[in-house]
Input
Amino acid sequence: MTEKLLTAASYLPEPNEFHRYTPSTRRPMRILVVEDDKRFANMLVEMLQERNYVVEWAADGQAARQLLAYQDYDLLILDVNLPDINGTELCHQLRQQGTETPILFLSAWDSSDDRVRGLDAGGDKYLAKSVDLRQLFADIRAMLRRVEHDLIVFLPELCCGDLRLDLQSRETYYGDRPLKLSPTQTRLLECFLRQPRKVLDWQAIADYVYDLSSELKTRDTVRSHLRGLRRKLATVGLEDLIATIYGLGYQLQASVAASASPTPSPDGRNEKLRAMLDRSWEQYHASICDDIAALASFNQQLLRCRTQLPAMQQRAHNLHGLLGTLAHQPAAALAADIGRALNKADLLSQLDELDAQVTQLREAIAVRPDLLVVSDDHFFNIDLRQAASQRQLTLRFASEGESALPTQLTTLQPQTVLLKGNSSQQWQWFFQLACSCQPRPTFLLANELTPDLPPALAHAIQLPLSLNCTQILDRIQQAIATG
Output
C-alpha cells in the first residue's frame, strides 16, 4: 500500500501549482499600470480587471515609486513618455534598486531604437499600444506564469495554446468558442492544465479530481470520464490533446493545442472585447476631438504659443497610443506623424504640412455611423453586430445612462437610431431621447406596438420583436437608401 501511494504521489503537482488553496494563501495576481493618459489607463485597467487581475494605476513616476514602496506587484506595465520621467529611466532606476518585478513596456513609441532602449534598461517585454489586444493579454499571461512566489497565488485562468479554463467562472473556451464541460470534466481538464509536462497515472488523476472518500476513485471511472472529456475536446479538433502513454498513464500534449486553429465565435471573449472598445470609443470621442482642436489652435498661433509645445507633443503622443489601442490605425498613424512633426527642430517650416495632417486626423475620426443602437439586451446586440458586419454597416452602441445619450447623438450624428425596450420606464427614456436629437429615421423595437406616439416620435417606425436581425437591418437599410 505504501509503495502504491508513493507512486501516485510522484505525479502530484508541485506545491506552487496545487489547486486546493486555503483562504489564507489564495490571492490574485496584482498589476501596476503606470500611464499618464487617464483615458488609456481607464480602458486598460477595465480590461485587466475583467480578466480577474487586481490592478492599480499610477499617473507618473513619483506615484509609481510610492506604490512600489508600499506594495509588491506581480507585473509592472510601464509607459515610456511620462510627465516627470522617461519610462526607460524609471525602469533602469528600479532595476538598480533591486526591483525584480517583471516590466512590460506599453508605449506609442514603437521604433526599433525605442524597443532596444526599453529592453536594455531592464524591461522584459516591449509592445506598441497599437498591438492586437489578444497578443497583449497572452504576453501578460506568459509573463505572470514565470513569476514565482513564496505564497501560493491564484491565476485567473489556465491556458494551453488557445484552450483556456477560467478558474473563477469555471468556464472553458477554445479561442472564442465556449466548451460545455460538466463539473467533473472541468476538474479533470484542470488537472492536466496544471501539470502539462507530467505523465499522470489513473490514481494521481483520481486523487486530484475526486474527494478523498469518494467511491468514484476507480480506474474504470477515470477512464469513463476521460472518454467524455475527449469527446468534448474533439468537437473543437482537440481529440488528441490528452494522449495515452501506455504502461504509464496520460499526458497533456501542448503541441496539439498550439497547432490547431480555433473557429471564432460571436459569443466569445473577443466579442466582449470589441464591445468594450466600442464603449471606450463613444466615451472618449469628445475628448479626442478636443485634443485635435487644441492641436489645430496651437498650429494657427504657433509663433505666440511656443511655451505650449511640450503639452502639444504630449497630446499627440497620447492620441497616437489611444487611437491605436481603439483599433483606429489610420488615425493613429496621423497622430504619430503630427507628433514627429512637433518634435522637429525646423517646426516653423512645417506649418502647412502640420495643418494638413491635423485636418486629415479630424476627418479620419469623424466617421458617421449608419446606426446608433440603444439596447441593454446583450445577446441581441451580439446578433445584430454579427449581421451588420456581413453588410458593412457601421454600428455604434449607446453607453448606458440617460444623460450620456443626447451627447452621443450630437457627437456621432448617426443616420438612423434603433431603440429596443419593453418597460414603461425604457419607453419614457426613449421619448426623452428623441426630443433631444435632430430629426432622423428612428426605429422602435418592442413586444407591443404603441398606436399613439408623442410628437417627438411621430415619424418613428415601429417594429415587432418577432423580426430577426436580418429583417431589422433590411428595414433600416431601406430607410438609409431613401434618405
